[in-house]
Amino acid sequence: MKHELVKEILYTKEQIDVRTKELAEEISKFYETQEVKDNTVILIGLLKGCVPFMANFLNNFTYECQTEYMVVSSYLGGTKTSGEPKINLDLNLSIKDKTILIVEDIVDSGLTLDYVKKYLYFKGARDVKILTMLDKPEGRKVEMNVEWSGFTIQNQFVIGYGLDYEERLRNLPYVAICDTDKLKDWKW
Ligand code: 5GP
Question: Is the pTM of this model over 0.85?
Answer without folding.
Answer: yes
